Amino acid sequence: MAVRSLLLEPIVPQARAERASAAAIPPPPLCARRLPLTPRTAKSPASGAMRSSIDAAVVQSCPSLTRIDVSCNDLRELPPELGLLKLAKLTIHGNPLRTLPSSLLNGATPKLLEHLRGKIVTGREGSGWEADGATLAAPDLATAVQRSGNELSLKGQSLRELPDGICSRDNLEKLDLSSNAMTNLTDEIGDLASLRKLTLDQNSLSQLPAVLFMLPHLTELSVEHNRLERLPAVLWSAPRLARVSLRANRLTAASLNMPPEASAPIQALDLGENRLGSVPPLASLTNLNELHMQGNGIASLPVEALPLRSLTTLDIRDNDLTNLPPQLSLASALQALSLSGNPLRSVPISVQQKGAGAVLALLARRMPEQ
């Protein structure tokens, strides 16, 4: 029968000499699979030994545990693998745990488990795996991926390519590969059939594979601060893609490779800090609510290129706009309009400071009579 509750209770030392002698006696295993389901299962025997560590391998052998009490021991750290358990309660007070902030020591168990899971996927000294260039020495990484739910973060691991085996995890829904050294994303990424959110910020990618946008459940993609120079046209027909951030790359309006009839259900698109030079043909993105095009050297704003009826946020800061077309006032849903950093002559600063409503009202008065 599976163990669900665990108490590791040390005997209070009676004398310094007894404690020193007891230190040579190893504490018992963390749990045994055949113990009965009682509130205080697997109690440490009266050996006088205070537990100084918890074996991560034994933790993984007890996946049904829901409560662990390791209070008043000599633990200086907790194995991150504890975060993989679905614990309702983890009691750790009375231990010299200097690696955990006090807010976690005295806080709720879910927050502590989340912190421990984070130490697994981002690596730590002595955790059993480290990123070494493109290779993860991680015999237990596959287990960690499977047991950590459907999310995996490999942020800041100096990866140059996808680690072996990651793309075989077809249960992955969220994958964070940001802050690495990746220059290429292979077609293997197309094997992640359940992927919903992919973060690739702060790498050195110059292109994205077309298969990425054929993933049936992909809804969020962030590739900020890379070296993208061209996008595959299939991006604009991705079936469920709702949020896309391509900020701080090397994209031009032409290299977006956007067809006249884009069908992707994109709601938020960030093209800021690229090299657009002009407004791309976005009018067919009829679900688009939020559009960022700041810092792109744009000198004119052709309203026929924009989905005016759906836009609620338009960020065109730090461009070269001198005028706004009166037809922009037809964007009746627009609530946020960022214009600073443009040499605008047609809209006084005093009006800009009053917000989108004031700007649209001014433009509406300039609409030609029918």
UniProtKB/TrEMBL annotation:
<dbReference type="InterPro" id="IPR032675">
    <property type="entry name" value="LRR_dom_sf"/>
</dbReference>
<keyword id="KW-0433">Leucine-rich repeat</keyword>
<dbReference type="InterPro" id="IPR050216">
    <property type="entry name" value="LRR_domain-containing"/>
</dbReference>
<protein>
    <submittedName>
        <fullName>Uncharacterized protein</fullName>
    </submittedName>
</protein>
<dbReference type="InterPro" id="IPR003591">
    <property type="entry name" value="Leu-rich_rpt_typical-subtyp"/>
</dbReference>
<dbReference type="InterPro" id="IPR001611">
    <property type="entry name" value="Leu-rich_rpt"/>
</dbReference>
<dbReference type="Pfam" id="PF13855">
    <property type="entry name" value="LRR_8"/>
</dbReference>
<dbReference type="GO" id="GO:0005737">
    <property type="term" value="C:cytoplasm"/>
</dbReference>
<keyword id="KW-0677">Repeat</keyword>
